[in-house]
Amino acid sequence: MSTSYTWQTLKFPTCNVCGSEFLILDLLIDHCKEQHKNMPYVCEHCGRADKYLSDFKRHQVMHTGERPHACQVCGDAFGQKFTLKTHMKRHAENTYYCEECKNSFKSEEEFERHKPIHAKEKVVV
């Protein structure tokens, strides 16, 4: 199986500040350090440049897969506190909660329609 690429289909590392593209990530990192000195934090994974350390740390979570913000209701974990806050609104809006799969529902009708899914899982053939 052969794969053909054209210059239009290749994705090059791109500066998130000025939009410049580079052949390799190291060139992008050097560019950010030289051209955007007011953006001192440069990601070694993707070349993204940030002005503030807090923004840089928040971005790094995307690459590490770390999920330090856990939901106290269902246990789901998120990389960013903002995402957890958005998730928690779902629990606040939904009053019916399934202990088996941690899903929540706005109405009793939705919850009742959901329950048989778990009964089917328990049937042994």
Automatic annotation (TrEMBL):
The keyword Membrane does not apply. Keywords: Metal-binding, Nucleus, Repeat, Zinc, Zinc-finger. Pfam families: zf-C2H2_4. One of its GO terms (cellular component) is nucleus. PROSITE patterns: ZINC_FINGER_C2H2_1 (PS00028), ZINC_FINGER_C2H2_2 (PS50157). It is found in: Nucleus. Residues 41-68, 69-96, 96-123 form the C2H2-type domain. InterPro entries: Znf_C2H2_sf, Znf_C2H2_type. The keyword Transmembrane helix does not apply. PANTHER family: FI01424P, ZINC FINGER AND SCAN DOMAIN-CONTAINING. This is C2H2-type domain-containing protein. It comes from Caerostris darwini.
